[in-house]
Amino acid sequence: MTRSLLLLACLVTFSITTTLAADPATAIGKRAITFTLEDQYQQEWAWDKHWRGKPTIVMMTDRSGKDYLQNWIKPLVDSLNDKVRFASFADVSTVPGFLKGFIRSKFREAFTWSILMDWDGVVMEHYLARPDVPNVLFVDATGTVRLHTWGQGTGSSVKTFIDQVKRHLQP
Question: Is the C or the N end of the chain the one with fewer CB within 10 Å?
Fold first, then answer.
């Protein structure tokens, strides 16, 4: 009996340790990726031209996370619009080539602001984006990722992210 309990305790400890160790890294400390991508209107956007040297909130998600994006957008824009730039990305890397035009038209219908179409998934991969939920990053004026969070955008997680951004923006 004692031996069985000891074995069970060892298995539980191993399971917890493995779970904690398997947590993927965040993008914190990474340099901003240089890119040129088109939005849903086929307008080109480049990091160096539009965001380089400016504090920027990067928002990105795949299809599964799109339903939670609004939970992040309104509070972030309301709180930080005059302090940072925004860049929004859609991971559309799994879309077959023949559907690109159709997908662009759906984005034009759904969003009035530019959503950069990451057809190859390079931005999502660079920033170690988690699938199925929005990923939100703060990139400072030096081009370094200072914050990286992800999730459904509950009130407390969004408020915490906004407060952390404001602390990074203080001189």
Answer: C
Dihedral pair phi/psi, residue 152, rounded to 5°: -75, -10
Q: Output the six-digit token pair for 151.
A: 């999730």
pTM comes to 0.83
C-alpha 165: how far from its chain's center? Answer: 15
How wide is the angle at C-alpha 82 spanned by C-alphas 166 and 112, nearest 5°? 115
Radius of gyration, CA atoms only, the chain: 19
User: Which of 4-18, 69-83, 98-112, 154-168 comes out lowest in average pLDDT?
Assistant: 4-18
Work out the number of other CB atoms within 10 angstroms of the CB of residue 47.
20
pLDDT tens-digit profile of 27-72?
999 999 999 999 999 999 999 999 999 999 999 999 999 999 999 9
In the chain, what's the furthest Cα-to-Cα distance? 69
Residue type, 163: D
The DSSP bridge partners found for residue 60 are 89, 135
Q: How does DSSP classify residue 125?
A: H
Residue with tokens 């956007």: 45
Question: What are the φ/ψ torsions at residue 126 (nearest 5 degrees)?
Answer: -60, -45
**Terminal C-alpha separation, the chain:** 62
